[in-house]
């Protein structure tokens, strides 16, 4: 039987995907560790030790990317968790319009990021944009959403949440719907309020959904590029640069070694944050 | 193994499509060859070439309206003169995006036969020795003015020929508003500021900022180079050798301070970070904004979009602190280069020679009015250029010009435009900006392998 | 009384959702139908003389029908990538779930790394250039497949766990080899998760901006996202055309959304929560 087993589930099945994965993903990933220590123009390289990394940490315009990337990932993923959960609770209740609302909130996740970025940067124009025109009707002078260095990153993060909250919502809906009815019935017998229902049943029992949303959006946030590049290109100045946009700029400048070092750094940041986070949340789930 | 045959159709189909594309390209050439050898009459019109093989060469230029028009004009005139050579135009985005495409195409061994690209530091960053054909000893180089050759040279060899007229970096201004307010063209920076304050009082935007297109933010710093070299003649050399820095050279730091002053005194439009270059030109033409630090290459765009406003506009050099040394910072035009791996070097040379001839400049001037003198000996500026171009000519006639820093030093940092956005919008002060730029250029200098860094 | 009040709240909620999620799309739509001058005002007014069709035609004709070529490229990219992705990942998911051995943890690890590690850009260019596929559609298809691989394999693997082994055993007793078993019996059973992957990946790949930006530079092989990005500078004074372009490239995902709305939501949930 063992021979039949091996023949039936032959590792040959892994070969086509394996070759592509090895060639296009693993080879570049592994070689990136080497090239990050070089000055490189794709054909010639010169070993320069930690020079690229030193430059990344010393140059203020590069270092700012770390802080921004962290802020961006934390802000977007936590907003997606909170809003996704609240909307999830709301849209699994007895609302008549829940299917309509689910659809309208989910639709932006399917639309091109570039398109959304362009539309929102026009709506956020400080003098002619829709948002500030609307604010001025009620007598508020709106800020320069994408020009104010203190605000720009958060403005883009807001658009990211606007576009991405649909995914979080869908995951929460599934999580909440999978909670067995018995829990609610037991609570009703104990005379619990809606508030109790939320805190002592929905929040703890939809933890697997929370886990998925956090991991998905946190890693996504750390790697984010499209939206920031469309809306601000990292500007004004360097105030909204993320690690990914810095990598792109170094690549544009022809600093291939430096860009690759940026890739390695991004990898380390993601690994250093996402892996422990994942482990921590897995342990929590077991505790439950 | 059955799995392998299962997966094949998709891949096979793809490779068939790819192959078909490659074959059809070759097929086209074969057909042409046969046709041209069959009709000897064509070889008579072709100048000097013995066999009338029809050859197609490729040309790459950036996709700005002006660049495409000029390239097409060159191509039409050239193909008429050399019927056996066809030129195919490819366009690429402008700015850093385009730099990147040129760099990767060179690095991956796939460039057009001829490419139009910047001269000066950007050209130096392309490793000319590896990627370009040496044009030092071509006959047409005798037509080219020497001051240009140094901007397309690397280790003493010349690699390019100019594709357009010189440009200047300075200040466009609205003459009508100047006259209405009784203002004079400023000869010192203090006068410029005083003028601007008056314009502000009159309720207009004194200085247009269009930082949504970040490259436009560099102009105040770059166009100050005439004043820098007037005070520190050796700056370019010392800067290249890492003996002088931006922050450590008062004259250079002053350029950043000027930018900061425009911000500190509130002389630029409030929404400058959301304003684009095109909107900037519109503000200037319509008189909503009165002065615009910009390259003179904006002239054709204004001429095209606001033809009835062009005569209201003038141009002056960015003034220094001393009225007695007032002069214009000049930008060299881009150049035509030939790709080293080109299969048609001879034809490519014929094309470049045509571009770098008096005839070539005449062709170019029909679609794009020159914004300064041509760099080809014997070429003249047509009389019907806008008066703002004529404003620049005295500087050239009186020898009051200096090339911008990027044409005398290969060191130009990639992030200057972000840094000047920061200084011009008050995120950083001048000193910090100059220091940040010193760090930025270090990267470029090291990548170029310059000594002293 | 309570019913009326809750109805009022719900109406308020719907209005708010429409405001937040509907207005941006309404904004895109109305501006796609204006002339350049009206569009430059960036407001929500309905165009005084709608010219949707004219704008769309102008956009399509720009730069020698660049957008149409881009649509062809993007469609080809999406279709080929998905066919390869589905076939190869289903095969891999099938064996990875059924055959547990000493190598299994290694495969698990590789899949997980694929989910977490950001792709190394320039070295990928270097590899693609080395095998002559840089700046080719085929190269980009391989990139999309390699990057979509971990997620899709994971979905297939999870779903395989719900397919009873008895089915395999019966087929093997009937004399089915692995290949016949997979293509005749398993692959059809995987249909629900295949549908999910088709929808999710086609949206991801069609909307992908970063990978074409890096791996398909130059004007020949443009994709719709790159075209839109480049038209930003082309149409800087003609927002109406920019929005017409946005409208055009939003149509394919919108159609997909209309057809698969329910299924996307169901499929998403099946895959992601279990992970």
Q: How would you explain this protein's 3D organization?
A:
The complex is a heterotrimer of chains A (288), B (453) and C (275). Helices cover 72% and strands 2% of the residues of chain A. Chain A is an all-alpha fold and 288 residues long. Chain A has one domain: Orthogonal Bundle (MetI-like fold). Chain A has a two-stranded antiparallel sheet. The radius of gyration of chain A is 23 Å and the shape is globular. In chain B, 47% of the residues lie in helices and 13% in strands. Chain B contains 20 helices and 13 strands. In chain B, a hairpin with a 2-residue loop joins β4 (153-154) and β5. In chain B, α3 (65-81) crosses α17, α13 (250-264) crosses α20 and α19 (416-424) runs antiparallel to α20 (430-448). By secondary structure, chain C is mainly alpha-helical. Chain C has a single domain (2-274), classed as MetI-like (MetI-like fold, Orthogonal Bundle). Helices cover 80% and strands 0% of the residues of chain C. In chain C, α7 (165-173) runs antiparallel to α8. The radius of gyration of chain C is 23 Å and the shape is globular. Chain C starts with a helix and ends with a helix. The relative contact order of chain C is 0.14. Chains in contact: A-B, A-C, B-C. Chains A and C meet through α1, α2, α5, α6 and α8 of A and α1, α3, α4, α5 and α6 of C. Chain A: This is Sugar ABC transporter permease. Chain A: Its main location: membrane.
């Amino acid at each position: 039987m063992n021979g039949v087993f091996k023949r039936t589930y032959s590792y040959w099945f892994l070969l086509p995907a394996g070759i592509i994965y090895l060639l296009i993903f693993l080879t570049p990933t592994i070689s990136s560790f080497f090239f990050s220590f070089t000055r490189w123009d794709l054909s010639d390289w010169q070993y320069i030790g930690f020079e690229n990394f030193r430059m990344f940490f010393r140059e203020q315009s590069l270092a700012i990317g770390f802080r921004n990337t962290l802020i961006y990932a934390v802000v977007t993923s936590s907003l997606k968790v909170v809003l996704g959960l609240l909307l999830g609770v709301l849209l699994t209740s007895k609302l008549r319009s829940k299917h309509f609302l689910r659809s309208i909130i989910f639709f932006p996740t399917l639309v091109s990021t570039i398109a959304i970025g362009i539309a929102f940067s026009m709506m956020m124009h400080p003098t002619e944009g829709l948002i500030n025109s609307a604010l001025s009707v009620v007598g508020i002078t709106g800020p320069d959403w994408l020009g104010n260095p203190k605000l720009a990153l958060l403005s883009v993060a807001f658009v990211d949440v606007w576009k991405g909250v649909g995914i979080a919502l869908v995951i929460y809906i599934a999580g909440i719907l999978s909670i067995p009815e018995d829990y609610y019935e037991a609570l009703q017998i104990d005379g619990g309020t809606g508030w109790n229902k939320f805190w002592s049943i929905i929040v703890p029992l939809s933890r697997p959904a929370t886990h998925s949303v956090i991991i998905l959006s946190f890693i996504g946030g750390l790697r984010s590029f499209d939206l920031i590049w469309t809306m601000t290109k990292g500007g004004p100045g360097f105030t909204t640069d993320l690690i990914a946009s810095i990598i792109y700029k170094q690549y544009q400048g022809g600093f291939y070694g430096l860009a690759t070092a940026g890739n390695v750094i991004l990898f380390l940041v993601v690994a250093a944050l996402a892996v422990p986070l994942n482990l921590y949340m897995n342990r929590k789930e077991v505790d439950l | 193994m059955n799995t392998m045959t299962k997966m094949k159709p998709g891949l096979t189909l793809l490779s068939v499509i790819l192959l078909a594309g490659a074959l059809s390209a070759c097929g086209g050439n074969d057909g042409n060859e046969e046709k041209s050898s069959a009709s000897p009459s064509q070889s008579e019109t072709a100048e000097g070439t013995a066999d009338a093989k029809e050859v197609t060469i490729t040309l790459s230029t950036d996709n700005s309206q002006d660049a495409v028009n000029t390239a097409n004009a060159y191509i039409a005139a050239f193909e008429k003169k050399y019927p056996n050579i066809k030129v195919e135009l490819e366009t690429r985005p402008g700015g850093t995006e385009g730099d990147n495409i040129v760099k990767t195409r060179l690095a991956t061994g796939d460039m057009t036969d001829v490419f139009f690209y910047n001269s000066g530091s950007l050209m130096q960053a392309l490793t000319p020795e590896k990627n370009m054909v040496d044009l030092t000893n071509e006959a047409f180089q005798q037509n080219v003015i020497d001051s240009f050759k140094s901007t397309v040279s690397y280790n003493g060899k010349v690699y390019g020929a100019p594709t357009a007229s010189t440009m200047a970096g300075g200040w466009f201004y609205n003459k009508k508003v100047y006259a209405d307010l009784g203002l004079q063209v400023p000869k010192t920076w203090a006068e410029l500021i005083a003028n601007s304050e008056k314009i502000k009082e009159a309720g207009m935007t004194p200085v247009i900022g269009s930082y949504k297109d970040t490259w436009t933010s560099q102009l105040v710093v770059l166009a100050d180079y005439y004043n820098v070299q007037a005070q520190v003649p050796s700056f370019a050399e010392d800067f290249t050798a890492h003996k002088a820095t931006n922050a450590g050279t008062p004259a250079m730091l002053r350029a950043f301070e000027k930018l900061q002053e425009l911000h500190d005194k509130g002389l630029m439009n409030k929404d400058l970070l959301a304003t684009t270059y095109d909107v900037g030109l519109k503000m200037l033409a319509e008189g909503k904004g009165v002065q615009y630090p910009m390259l003179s290459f904006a002239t054709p765009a204004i001429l095209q979009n606001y033809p009835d406003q062009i005569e209201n506009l003038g141009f002056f050099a960015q003034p220094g602190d001393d009225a007695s040394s007032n002069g214009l910072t000049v930008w060299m035009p881009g150049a035509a280069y030939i790709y080293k791996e080109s299969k048609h070097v001879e034809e490519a040379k014929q094309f470049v020679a045509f571009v770098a001839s008096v005839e070539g400049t005449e062709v170019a001037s029909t679609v794009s009015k020159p914004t300064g003198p041509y760099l080809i000996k014997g070429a003249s500026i047509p009389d019907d250029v806008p008066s703002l171009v004529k404003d620049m000519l005295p500087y050239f006639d009186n020898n009051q010009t200096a090339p911008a820093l990027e044409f005398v030093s290969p060191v130009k940092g990639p992030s200057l435009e972000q840094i000047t956005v920061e200084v011009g919008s008050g995120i950083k002060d001048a000193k910090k900006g100059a220091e940040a730029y010193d760090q930025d250029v270090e990267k470029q200098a090291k990548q170029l392998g310059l000594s002293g860094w | 009384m309570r019913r009326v009040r809750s109805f009022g709240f719900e109406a308020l909620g719907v209005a708010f959702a429409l405001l937040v999620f509907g207005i941006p799309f309404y904004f895109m739509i109305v501006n796609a139908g204006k002339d350049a001058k009206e569009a430059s005002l960036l407001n929500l007014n309905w165009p005084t003389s709608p010219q949707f069709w004219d704008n769309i035609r102008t956009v399509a004709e720009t730069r020698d029908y660049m957008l149409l070529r881009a649509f062809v490229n993007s469609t080809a990219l999406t279709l080929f990538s998905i066919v390869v992705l589905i076939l190869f990942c289903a095969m891999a998911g099938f064996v990875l779930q059924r055959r547990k051995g000493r190598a299994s943890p290694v495969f698990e690890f590789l899949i997980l790394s694929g989910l977490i590690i950001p792709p190394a850009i320039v070295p990928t260019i270097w590899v693609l250039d080395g095998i002559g596929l840089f700046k080719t559609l085929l190269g980009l298809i391989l990139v999309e497949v390699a990057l979509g691989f971990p997620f899709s394999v994971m979905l297939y693997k999870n779903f395989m766990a719900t397919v009873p082994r008895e089915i395999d055993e019966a087929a093997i007793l009937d004399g089915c080899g692995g290949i016949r078993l997979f293509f005749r019996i398993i692959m059809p059973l995987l249909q629900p998760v295949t549908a999910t992957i088709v929808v999710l990946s086609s949206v991801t790949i069609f909307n992908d901006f970063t990978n074409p930006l890096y791996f398909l530079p130059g004007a020949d092989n443009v994709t719709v996202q790159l075209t839109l990005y480049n038209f930003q500078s082309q149409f800087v004074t003609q927002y109406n055309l920019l929005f017409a372009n946005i409208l055009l490239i939003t149509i394919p995902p919108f159609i997909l959304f209309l057809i698969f709305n329910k299924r996307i939501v169901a499929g998403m949930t099946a895959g992601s929560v279990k992970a």
